[in-house]
Amino acid sequence: MNGDVYNYGILLLEMMTGRSPIDPMFNECLSLHNFAKVALPDHVKEIVEPKVLSNNKEVEMATSNNMQSRGQSKNSNSMEDCLISMVKVGVACSMESPQDRMDLNQVIRELYSVKSILGGT
């Protein structure tokens, strides 16, 4: 599977941060990509769209229930790990140079990993 993932990365960062690449806060020194990149990994919660975080408790409860039903212990940081993974994918896909961008197969693997943590099949 080949394809240019740049636009996907920007879209993912827009969804995660709630900011557009043409947001007035961005200029020639700061882009959406760089904004997300400097937040990794310790400050991701600070840049994530508040609507994503407002659903955090519901998702954590569902994740915990799903993991318990499968006999797994709940990782207290699973939601934060998922947020970090999603932002990492967005940053990796939106690298300036096409050869530095994440391969589409790796993007799919990372997203399936997030899905499985959140209790999807």
Short description:
The chain is mainly alpha-helical and 121 residues long. The chain contains 7 helices and no strands.
Question: How would you describe the overall organization of this protein?
Answer:
60% of the residues lie in helices and 0% in strands. With 121 residues, the protein is mainly α.
What is the residue-averaged pLDDT? 83
Main β-sheet description:
none
Instruction: Note the beta-strand portion.
Output: under 5%
Rg over CA atoms, rounded to whole Å, is: 15 Å
For the terminal residues, how far apart are their CA atoms? Answer: 22 Å
Counting H and I runs of at least 4 residues, what is the number of helices? 7
**How many runs of DSSP E, i.e. beta strands?**
0
Rough outline: globular
Structural class of the secondary elements? mainly alpha
What key attributes describe this structure?
mainly alpha
Topology:
Elements: H1 6-17, H2 32-39, H3 44-47, H4 50-54, H5 56-69, H6 78-93, H7 104-117
Helix pairs in contact: 1-6, 2-6, 6-7
